[in-house]
Design a protein that fits this description.
Helix content is 67%, strand content 0%. The protein has 11 helices and no strands. It has helices spanning 7-22, 29-35, 42-47, 50-73, 79-95, 100-108, 120-143, 151-167, 169-176, 183-201, 213-219. By secondary structure, it is mainly α. It has 2 domains: 1-48, Homeodomain-like (Arc Repressor Mutant, subunit A), CATH 1.10.10; 55-205, Tetracycline Repressor, domain 2 (Orthogonal Bundle).
């Protein structure tokens, strides 16, 4: 890959590499300017601040994922097929952005500076995607193709496998000898995750038919009791 000649693009490229390698707190504005062969004020001039630069990099890597998930959720296909599209979309998205796992791991481990818990970029992205996945799960429960259970927890489980396989790359490579960055290995993992998730979500053959009383009782979400109320 050729080095960008535009100062702003050079800053984005080297900052992405440094943030992935050292994290937000371990990377200074001076580090970025030196690596980009730019003057010290270039980061402030082009981005306003180190935090704004970091947010732009994070948004470029994570933000489009919500769009891909939204597209998969709105497909006219059956719910289980939509779930498969979601899982494959996550694998493909990360495969195309090799720096994303390192950035995500550092965020999930505790964030940084102003955002020690959840970065607004991550909250916005997954806050948009999660309700859509819950909607697909709920639709599958209503038509009898997806088993009963808490749609929110089932949706989180759908996201867990593709995210784990990609965020745990170093451990998987060292312990299992599998390199998720390899295209064929990533495809193998995606196929495995899809098979496991579909099998886990599919309604059992003896599940009550949609519309019956037994089905309504089985798929009814439990009511939460207000705190302090009498039993």
């Amino acid at each position: 890959m050729s080095t960008p000649t535009n100062t702003r693009d050079r800053i984005l490229e080297v900052a992405r590499d440094l943030f992935a390698q050292r994290g937000y707190n371990g990377t200074s504005v001076r580090d970025i300017a030196t690596a980009a062969e730019a003057n010290l004020g270039a980061v402030g001039y082009h981005f306003g601040s180190k935090d704004a630069l970091y947010a732009e990099i994070l948004r470029a890597h994570v933000g489009p994922l919500a769009q891909r998930i939204a597209w998969a959720c709105r497909s006219p296909r059956p719910p289980l097929d939509r779930v498969e599209f979601i899982v494959r979309a996550v694998f493909e998205h990360i495969q195309m952005r090799p720096h994303m796992p390192a950035l995500m791991v550092r965020e999930l481990a505790g964030g940084h500076g102003r955002y020690p818990q959840v970065n607004p970029v991550l909250k916005e992205t997954f806050g948009r995607a999660l309700p859509l996945i819950v909607g697909v799960i709920t639709k599958g429960q209503r038509d009898g193709t997806i088993r009963a259970g808490d749609p929110l927890l089932l949706a989180l489980s759908v996201m867990a496998q593709p995210i784990y396989f990609n965020l745990a790359r170093p451990v998987i490579a060292a312990v299992a000898g599998l390199e998720p960055r390899d295209e064929a290995t990533s495809q193998r993992m995606a196929d495995h995750a899809v098979a496991v998730i579909r099998a886990g979500l599919a309604a059992p053959p003896d599940a009550p038919a949609p519309g019956t009383l037994a089905h309504r009782v089985r798929t009814r979400r439990p009511k939460t009791r207000p705190k302090g109320s009498a039993r």
